[in-house]
Amino acid sequence: xxxxxxxxxxxxxxxxxxxxxxxxxxxxxxxxxxxxxxxxxxxxxxxxxxxxxxxxxxxx
Length: 60
Fold this sequence. Notes:
Helix content: over 70%
Mean pLDDT: 90
Number of strands: 0
Largest sheet: none
Radius of gyration: 22 Å
């Protein structure tokens, strides 16, 4: 099982580096989106995007 994976992804140095960089980028994007959702859920109703209507309508 490990041999085909090794031969496909990690046999050559540039392939391994490509896998590492792509994996790190994908993890960073996934983590960023997930943490933004957690932050928005914890701070729901206290952020500008949640209360903008109340103050924008008051000025007009």
